[in-house]
Amino acid sequence: MDTRLIARNALLGLLLLSLVAFGWKSLSSVQDTKDPLAGLEDADRSAAVQAVYYHGNFRCETCNSIEAQAGQTFEDVFAGELASGRLAWSSCNIDKAGNEHFEEDFQLTSASLVLSDGKGAPGRWKVL
After folding, report:
1. What letter does residue 59 receive in the DSSP assignment?
2. d(CA 115, CA 113)
3. Measuring CA to CA, which residue among 74, 27, 17 is closest to residue 49?
4. What residues contact residue 71 under an 8 Å CB cut-off, 6+ apart?
5. Rounded to 5 degrees, what angle do the CA atoms 30, 106, 44 make?
6. pTM of the model as a whole
7. Is 55 helix (H, G, I), strand (E, B) or coil?
8. H/E run at residue 40
């Protein structure tokens, strides 16, 4: 019986340490104030609204189609905003060196279209 109690307490202690370590890592990443738009071209960063299609190296036919249709929609519907610089449309490979942070910054789980304010600082954004 003493062996079971010791084993149980050891497992509970290990679980507690794991939870504390996970919480510490999560808290550290929340407090990180790095610019989520770092890595975008300066011209893209100056727009009032950023529309960025984030993707990885592997791109299926559907992913390519979504990007093409989104780009065409922006060009057709928001031509004036694109021309005036109020809206910037681009795509970004998150597997490219230096772009990995976008996955965590915008909580991306797959290829995604993200709209964000163009202030260049953590602000309002929406994954579509």
Report:
1. -
2. 7
3. 74
4. 53, 89, 91
5. 120
6. 0.62
7. strand
8. none
Pairwise CA distance, residues 36 & 27, whole Å? 17
- Residue 3 in 3-state DSSP? helix
As to burial, measured by CB atoms within 10 angstroms (0-12 exposed, 13-18 middle, 19+ buried), residue 49 is middle
Closest CA to 56 of 14, 20, 108, 126: 108
What's the rounded Cα separation, in Å, for the pair 103 and 115? 14
Instruction: List strand residue ranges (DSSP E) for the chain, in order.
Output: 49-55, 87-93, 112-117, 125-127
Instruction: Give yes or no for a contact between 54 and 102, defined as CB atoms under 8 angstroms apart.
Output: yes
Element of type H or E holding 47: none
Q: How many helices (H) and strands (E) does the chain have?
A: 5, 4
pLDDT tens digits in sequence order for the chain, 128 residues long: 578 777 776 666 565 556 555 555 544 444 444 444 455 555 445 668 888 999 999 888 988 999 999 999 989 998 998 998 888 999 999 999 998 888 888 888 889 999 888 765 557 888 88
